[in-house]
């Protein structure tokens, strides 16, 4: 029996080949970096570090850039600020060049806030998904395609800290050290799989996508809302969430550091049973959750918010469900909306099979939300393909999914499927 082929161990990438560059904090240093980048060739590899979980804002606290022949540069954006002359010049440099980002939708907003607006994008994570790779994080991609391992020990650090530790800067520099070479590997896979045009269309759609509309009733997304059954409890959650959000925005601190979502829902359930009127009562309720001192810094505000909610007349309590155009949960379709569930059951099964055939995740083949909308309200004055594109599907996605959906809409008996679905209910919601 032949021995199994052993995959060579990945080589740890510990430092950038040219060392960790000094962080750029002055106009003189920024100008020198711009001059070096202008002398380079090919695409620009970008990354950004934020302080997610620490700050309210999603601003960038470090920008990493590398270009072949143009060097690797670490820019502290805080001394410059949005719209600074140097960012304007950087944006002019990249105007007609490809910009490489990994998981671009995470970094584009904070780059755009500074005035960096890529026009040509290559997203190595999304490219990996479309190519059919199982693991598409930056580390796994570098390991599987380039035989290099990347440490991620500082990925959740507070990047607003100053000065930034040298080991953090080393970690940040490594995020772009091989990004150009990784882009070429992913591009080759897409071309070989005849999926490059799909990826191009997706990359272009990300660049041209409008800013997301403000959420309706964002407080409804508080973790643990499934425990909140009564409208008065919802009113308490709303008041606490809004008070916390106002304080967090003003102090630029992550809301969860002031009061966790679990604490909000726990307070709402307890307050509805027995009014919370003092700090000691508040502390007693929160202690089983792992009480943190910072939760009590604004105890008076939390108590006032709870009291305000409790005193609201019933006609000012939130509605049980949001007035958005959200569709009913899928678990209700079979019993309450069988005529909608019939085509959905066929569409989900056959689209999952199509995704497997094409070696692409189902959610990248077509958004499950769009599938549900077509099954819930089939188009009357347009084709399914046109309706999908009007809802935001890429042309290539609509071309593949439309025939499957058209066939599903003609079915009269639901498919009996196991409860487990290719895409989780939470992802579809």
Name given to the CATH homologous superfamily of the largest domain: Ribonuclease H-like superfamily/Ribonuclease H
Main sheet strand line-up: 4-3-2-5-6
**Rg computed from alpha carbons, rounded to a whole number of angstroms:** 25 Å
How many helical elements? Answer: 20
What is the terminal-to-terminal distance? 49 Å
Report on the structure:
With 429 residues, the chain is α/β, with parallel strands linked by helices. It folds into three domains: 11-208, Ribonuclease H-like superfamily/Ribonuclease H (Nucleotidyltransferase, domain 5, 2-Layer Sandwich); 218-316, HRDC domain (DNA polymerase, domain 1, Orthogonal Bundle), CATH 1.10.150; 330-428, HRDC domain (DNA polymerase, domain 1), CATH 1.10.150.80. 49% of the residues lie in helices and 7% in strands. It has 20 helices and seven strands. The strands form two sheets. A five-stranded mixed β-sheet has the order 4-3-2-5-6, with helices on both faces. Strand 3 and strand 4 (71-75) form a beta hairpin. Helix 9 runs antiparallel to helix 11 (261-273). The longest helix is centred in the middle third of the chain and has 21 residues, at 231-251. The chain is globular. Residues 1-5 and 420-429 have low confidence and may be disordered. Residues 21-191 form the 3'-5' exonuclease domain. This is Ribonuclease D. Pfam families: DNA_pol_A_exo1, DNA_pol_A_exoN, HRDC.
List descriptors.
RNase_D-like, 7 strands, 5-stranded mixed β-sheet, HRDC_dom_sf, globular, disordered C terminus, disordered N terminus, 7% strand, 20 helices, Exo_C, 429 residues, DNA polymerase, domain 1, two-stranded parallel ribbon, Nucleotidyltransferase, domain 5, alpha/beta
């Amino acid at each position: 029996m032949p021995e199994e082929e052993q995959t060579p161990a990945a080589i740890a990438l510990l430092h950038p080949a040219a060392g960790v560059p000094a962080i750029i904090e002055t106009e003189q240093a920024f100008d020198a970096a711009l001059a070096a980048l202008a002398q380079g060739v090919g695409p620009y590899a970008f990354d950004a570090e934020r302080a997610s979980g620490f700050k309210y804002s999603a601003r960038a606290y470090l920008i990493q850039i590398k270009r072949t022949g143009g060097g690797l540069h670490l820019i502290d954006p805080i001394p410059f600020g949005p719209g600074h002359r140097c960012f304007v010049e950087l944006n002019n440099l990249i105007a007609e060049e490809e910009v490489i980002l990994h998981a671009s939708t995470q970094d584009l907003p904070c780059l755009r806030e500074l005035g960096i607006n890529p026009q040509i994008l290559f997203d190595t994570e999304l490219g990996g998904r479309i190519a059919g790779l199982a693991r598409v994080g930056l580390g796994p991609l570098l390991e599987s395609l380039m035989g290099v391992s990347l440490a991620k020990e500082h990925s959740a650090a507070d990047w607003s800290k100053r000065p930034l530790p040298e080991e953090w800067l080393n970690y940040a520099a490594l995020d772009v050290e091989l990004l150009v070479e990784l882009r070429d590997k992913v591009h080759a896979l897409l071309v070989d799989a005849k999926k490059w045009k799909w990826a191009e269309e997706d990359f272009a759609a990300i660049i041209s996508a409008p800013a997301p509309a403000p959420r309706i009733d964002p407080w409804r997304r508080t973790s643990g809302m499934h425990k909140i059954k009564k409208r008065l409890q919802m009113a308490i959650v709303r008041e606490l969430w809004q008070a916390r959000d106002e304080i967090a925005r003003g102090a630029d601190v992550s809301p969860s550091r002031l009061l966790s979502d679990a604490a909000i829902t726990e307070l709402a359930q307890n307050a509805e049973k027995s009014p919370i009127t003092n700090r000691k009562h508040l502390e007693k309720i929160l202690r089983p959750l792992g009480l943190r001192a910072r939760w009590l810094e604004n105890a008076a505000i939390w108590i006032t918010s709870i009291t305000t909610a409790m005193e609201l007349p019933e006609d000012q309590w939130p509605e049980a469900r949001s007035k958005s155009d959200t569709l009913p949960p899928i678990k209700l379709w079979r019993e309450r909306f069988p005529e909608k569930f019939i085509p959905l059951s066929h569409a989900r099964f056959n689209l999952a099979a199509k995704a497997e055939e094409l070696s692409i995740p189902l959610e990248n083949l077509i958004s499950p939300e769009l599938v549900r909308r077509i099954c819930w309200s089939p188009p009357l004055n347009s084709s399914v393909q046109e309706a999908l594109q009007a809802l935001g599907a890429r042309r290539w996605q609509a071309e593949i999914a439309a025939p499957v959906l058209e066939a599903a809409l003609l079915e009269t008996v639901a498919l009996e499927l196991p409860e487990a679905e290719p895409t989780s209910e939470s992802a579809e919601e």
